[in-house]
Inverse folding.
């Protein structure tokens, strides 16, 4: 047990060290690298490296466990048959929604992690990570057109980390319904929700002003496409925000605050990890609606790294809050018995009085 | 060669009430036992318990004993039971493995899972396809078959495990008359060849045709158990949410109308 | 008020594939109760999807109330023709039974008391009145199917089309569906049902249309359709008349598709003989 | 188990796996081991990114994509598919870089407030070269490899049967889910949902269509789980495989060579030695 932990930590540290050394050598596509954004680029790469290192650490732990004990007890509890049946559904959802929303609608969010987050929340962090990773690999290699999308494989690592975070959130019971709470708690929850959304709005505002200058706050004015996309994005955000507050007020459900916070954290992490990939591999474009945000930033004079990070920090938290909100709705619409049978299902249901067991004769599955 | 349930009760996880109580049921070799009852009377639950899926796969709590050839199976894992008891469901599409490109591979899926030698897998797959007379479908894509054909493929997938017992939960519910015919003929043939089959059905005409014994469930308890013709002629069936077979209904209507039912003659087929 | 006329209708799903419908002529008068029977793949579902514009004719013409269904929008036709699909899980999305049933009538612009009355009536008719706030996925499959029926019933369309309404229903469920059909007819609505359940067909409908390979091969009252003369036609599409029809023929009573008609025939014969 | 044999009436001995199971591909390139083709595609894609510029990716495309595609007889389909896949990204690349590259001064064209620059054009072309190389490499793999070949091969090499199951099932689920979405759209339109017309109407239509796609699929999970476990899915250990794609020592060496080459390229690039 201890050996596994030590090896995992060593693996993590080694990957981080190698990553930081390599970071100095990552090509910036021959472009001038303004000093202003240099520290951001380092921070970007650091997040990516930490993400990779985390996954490497997990893999080392699991491999050692397998060698030592012959099984992966810590994994198998998450990968029940039910999880394995849900995973293809989740992967197909990621691919279909991701392709439709990002490529066809050209909306500057992704919606390609609903399945990942759903599996993570229901089945656990490793199941979530595996779903995200597999989804992106399959998306690039074996899913036939029109759903094939080669760039997806490069972002497999991001998807895995998203699944990991979602699984942790589910395991901590963050998405358990908290209906009918007293007004005092709801006011606090509402305040936190409003604060998070306010901060996001402020970050977005800062991002635009820092890059475009305060007088240029409306980059849309000189390009009609920005106006339309801006409005659609805004509509989605408004729908989510209204939905969350509706939950809070109508169902007195405090969980909407948890959804917002979890979504924002996941979004920021995803943005930090994915920005250097998008910048380094594809020069900041992925053929999706988010490209227009990148263009807007670049028009304001940002370099690739800064533009993709700026785009990510705007798109990702919004995208992940929306996604967690959708997943929360899906789980509350699922049959209770279906939810309860997933590995983390019990942590997603409001606790009811446990059924009193008649003594002795009733027994569960013995195997 | 028999599957025996003695004093079996079962309760789903989180449910306040048991869904099955005091079930005593024996499934001997070369017989078809029909299972009738209203929706939510416990037919599906009994199928799950008899096949071992409850509580192993669906959770919940059980009591009483289940014996296979005299051996208590309580400690058997699902994959071990799966080699002895096959269970089929009403929706043909959800029984497909989703990983097979051809009917042959679909039917071979179970034997492959339990790690049988390759030659054995192939032999059993051909045998199962032949037993249901669908060897000519072997190359087809299982997703592109009709519902009736898919149901036969699913059943062949069960047979390829060479189970001693088959449990079929409303196998014809979603099929058209042609598909129902295919499945009914297959059930009759398998029983004639020695299989022990428990079949839950709303269609009592079909039970009258294939079953030698019929069990009726109501609110989780067995309320009738006996030879098919006796149970299916029971005047209380409609109150139990079971439509009597056409022939029984017709005779009863005739005698109620004061007409000697003998006038109707034989009503088989 | 809601006549449906089908003239020379043909439908091909993809260029070069088989003709799912191959020259169908049919006229359904307002208030009729019509059963469509035939094997899977005979074109029944394809036909009814033309009634509300989900499919457009490849050849021929479909008119609803004299309006060309080929050119009216589905949204417009939805207010005339309500279609209940076979699989309820392909339409349920609401968190509660009542809001699921409200979806259709809301789309048609119903609000307030009118909406509430329609929804309540539909829930009563399908036996779901105690379950208004239940999550639909917590209902069993057979009751989800009744929910799908209720959700279209509440739209109060002059025409009601049911695709396999009795599948998976027990004896009581079939009785409910039969009662729904009867009360819809009593309100003057047209009911068209696709079914494989010959007894349900013979006892519930006044007209039976048999399809095979994209064509109508039989059209008449149950007495006509299940007559001995048509046994071979039915068999060619893997259908069998109800037992009462077979017995009636054997006893020389002519066509007796239902138990009641068989007994009537017997009584008449015994009285006469 | 005497009774069990009654279940099958016929015992024809000596029958093998039918020829249609795991039927080999039409060309020698098709018949390469799937892992070899996957390695080639991945190495080509990564190398194009690491190399950068225009010439590197161009050579890669010629050698590792166009050449094999001609050998496999899929050049026409490859060009069509790869273009289709890279088109949206290419358009974005041009829009973003051609017009919005900061610091670029050589103006080529001025449309209203937007200016196209020569530096932007060069950079856009560079990105385009990478995207074409990546799409081409992946498309070549996709066109010459059945998903089941790759999955079976990976399982033979020791990948867990469960991972193999998820991969195969995902490939089948995507088209099945699209079909389901079509049926659901029909059902909701029959209930008066208007999916045509204004943007707002389309947005309103998302929930009644996407909702049942997700919830209906999840409602089937229970039945699928039971059906799978009833067929021995939970047995630990390896499954029996009916067939596996062929492999050879030469191909194993080739895969190792490709990976070593890529590694060397990355080291050279990072240390700044070459190019």
């Amino acid at each position: 047990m201890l050996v596994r932990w030590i090896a995992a930590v060593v693996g993590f540290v080694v990957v981080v060290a190698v990553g930081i050394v390599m970071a100095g050598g990552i090509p910036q596509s021959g472009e001038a690298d303004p000093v202003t954004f240099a520290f951001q680029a380092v921070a970007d790469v650091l997040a990516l490296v930490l993400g990779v290192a985390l996954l490497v650490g997990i893999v080392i732990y699991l491999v050692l466990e397998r060698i030592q004990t012959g099984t992966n007890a810590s994994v198998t509890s998450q990968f029940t048959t039910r999880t394995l049946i849900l995973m293809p559904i989740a992967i197909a959802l990621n691919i279909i929604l991701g392709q439709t929303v990002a490529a066809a609608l050209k909306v500057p969010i992704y919606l390609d992690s609903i399945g990942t987050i759903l599996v993570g929340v229901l089945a656990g962090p490793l199941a979530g990570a595996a779903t995200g990773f597999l989804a992106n690999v399959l998306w690039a290699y074996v899913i036939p057109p029109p759903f094939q999308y080669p760039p997806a494989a490069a972002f497999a690592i991001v998807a895995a980390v998203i699944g990991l975070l979602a699984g942790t959130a589910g395991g901590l019971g963050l998405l358990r319904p908290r209906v009918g709470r007293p007004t005092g708690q709801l006011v606090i929850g509402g305040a936190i929700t409003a604060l998070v959304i306010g901060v996001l709005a402020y970050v977005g505002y800062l991002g635009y002003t820092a890059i475009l200058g305060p007088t240029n706050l409306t980059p849309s004015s000189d390009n009609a496409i920005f106006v339309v996309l801006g409005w659609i994005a805004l509509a989605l955000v408004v729908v989510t925000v209204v939905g969350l507050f509706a939950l809070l007020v109508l169902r007195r459900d405090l969980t909407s605050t948890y959804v917002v916070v979890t979504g924002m954290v996941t979004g920021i992490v995803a943005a930090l990890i994915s920005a250097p990939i998008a910048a380094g591999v594809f020069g900041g474009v992925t053929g999706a609606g988010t490209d227009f945000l990148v263009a807007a930033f670049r028009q304001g004079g940002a370099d690739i790294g800064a533009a993709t990070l700026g785009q990510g920090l705007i798109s990702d938290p919004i995208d992940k809050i929306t996604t967690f909100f959708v997943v929360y709705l899906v789980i509350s619409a699922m049959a209770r018995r279906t939810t309860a049978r997933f590995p983390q299902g019990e942590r997603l249901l409001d606790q009811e009085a446990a059924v009193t067991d008649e003594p002795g004769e009733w027994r569960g599955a013995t195997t | 060669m028999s599957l025996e349930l003695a004093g079996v009760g079962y309760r789903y996880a989180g449910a306040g009430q048991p869904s099955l109580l005091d079930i005593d049921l024996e499934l001997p070799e070369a017989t078809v036992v029909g299972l009738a009852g209203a929706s939510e009377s416990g037919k599906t639950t009994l199928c799950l318990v008899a096949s071992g899926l409850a509580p192993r796969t669906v959770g919940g709590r059980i009591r009483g004993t289940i014996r296979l050839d005299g051996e208590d199976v309580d400690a058997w894992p699902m994959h071990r039971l799966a080699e002895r008891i096959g269970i089929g469901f009403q929706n043909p599409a959800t029984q497909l493995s989703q990983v097979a490109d051809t009917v042959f591979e679909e039917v071979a899926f179970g034997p492959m899972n339990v790690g049988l030698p390759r030659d054995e897998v192939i032999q059993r797959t051909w045998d199962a396809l032949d037993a249901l007379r669908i060897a000519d479908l072997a190359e087809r894509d299982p997703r592109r078959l009709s519902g009736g054909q898919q149901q036969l493929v699913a059943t062949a997938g069960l047979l390829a495990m060479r189970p001693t017992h088959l449990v079929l939960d409303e196998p014809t519910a979603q099929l058209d008359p042609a598909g129902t015919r295919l499945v009914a003929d297959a059930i009759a043939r398998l029983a004639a060849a020695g299989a022990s089959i428990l079949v839950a059905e709303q269609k009592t005409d079909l039970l009258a045709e294939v079953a030698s014994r019929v069990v009726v469930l109501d609110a989780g308890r067995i309320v009738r158990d006996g030879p098919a013709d006796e149970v299916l002629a029971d005047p209380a069936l409609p109150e139990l949410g079971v439509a009597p077979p056409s022939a029984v209904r017709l005779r009863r209507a005739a005698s109620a109308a004061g007409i000697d039912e003998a006038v109707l003659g034989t009503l088989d087929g | 008020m809601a006549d449906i006329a089908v003239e020379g209708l043909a439908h091909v799903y993809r260029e070069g594939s088989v003709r799912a419908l191959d020259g169908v002529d049919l006229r359904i008068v307002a208030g009729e109760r019509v059963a469509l029977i035939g094997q899977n793949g005979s074109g029944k579902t394809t036909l009814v999807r033309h009634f509300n514009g989900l499919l457009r004719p490849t050849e021929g013409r479909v008119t609803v109330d004299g309006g060309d269904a080929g050119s009216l929008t589905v949204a417009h036709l939805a207010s005339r023709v309500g279609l209940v699909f076979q699989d309820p899980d392909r339409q349920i999305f609401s968190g509660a039974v009542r809001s699921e049933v409200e979806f259709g009538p809301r789309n048609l612009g119903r609000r307030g008391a009118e909406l509430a009355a329609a929804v309540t009536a539909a829930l009563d008719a399908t036996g779901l009145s105690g379950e208004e706030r239940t999550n639909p996925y917590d209902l069993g499959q057979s009751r989800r199917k009744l929910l799908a029926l209720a959700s279209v019933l509440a739209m109060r369309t002059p025409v009601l089309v049911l695709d396999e309404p009795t599948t998976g229903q027990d004896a009581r469920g079939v009785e409910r569906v039969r009662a729904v059909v009867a009360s819809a007819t009593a309100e003057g609505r047209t009911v068209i049902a696709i079914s494989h359940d010959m007894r349900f067909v013979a006892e519930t409908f006044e007209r039976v249309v048999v399809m095979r390979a994209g064509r109508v091969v039989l059209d008449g009252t149950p007495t006509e359709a299940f007559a001995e003369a048509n046994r071979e036609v039915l068999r060619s599409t893997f259908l069998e008349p109800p037992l009462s029809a077979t017995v009636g023929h054997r006893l020389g009573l002519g066509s007796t598709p239902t138990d009641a008609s068989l007994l009537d025939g017997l009584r008449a014969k015994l009285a006469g003989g | 188990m005497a009774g069990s044999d009654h279940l099958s009436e016929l015992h024809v001995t000596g029958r093998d796996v039918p020829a249609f199971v795991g039927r080999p591909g039409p060309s020698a390139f098709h018949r390469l081991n799937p892992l070899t083709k996957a390695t080639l595609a991945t190495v080509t894609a990564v190398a194009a990114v690491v190399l950068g510029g225009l010439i590197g990716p161009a050579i890669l495309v010629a050698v590792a994509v166009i050449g094999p595609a001609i050998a496999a007889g899929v050049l026409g389909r490859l060009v069509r598919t790869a273009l289709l896949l890279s088109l949206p990204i290419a358009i974005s690349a041009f829009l973003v870089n051609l017009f919005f590259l900061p610091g670029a001064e050589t103006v080529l064209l001025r449309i209203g407030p937007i200016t196209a620059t020569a530096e932007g054009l060069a950079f856009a072309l560079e990105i385009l070269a990478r995207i074409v190389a990546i799409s081409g490499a992946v498309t070549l793999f996709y066109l010459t490899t059945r998903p089941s070949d790759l999955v079976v091969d990976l399982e033979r090499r020791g990948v867990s049967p469960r991972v193999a199951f998820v991969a195969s099932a995902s490939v089948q689920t995507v088209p099945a889910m699209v079909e389901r979405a079509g049926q659901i759209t029909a059902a909701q339109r029959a209930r008066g949902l208007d999916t045509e017309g204004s943007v707002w109407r389309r947005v309103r239509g998302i929930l009644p269509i996407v909702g049942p796609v997700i919830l209906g699929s999840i409602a089937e999970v229970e039945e699928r789980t039971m059906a799978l476990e009833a067929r021995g899915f939970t047995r630990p250990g390896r499954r029996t495989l009916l067939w596996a794609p062929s492999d050879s020592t030469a191909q194993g060496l080739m895969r190792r060579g490709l990976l070593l080459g890529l590694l060397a390229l990355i080291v050279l690039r990072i240390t700044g030695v070459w190019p």
DSSP finds ten helices and ten strands in chain B.
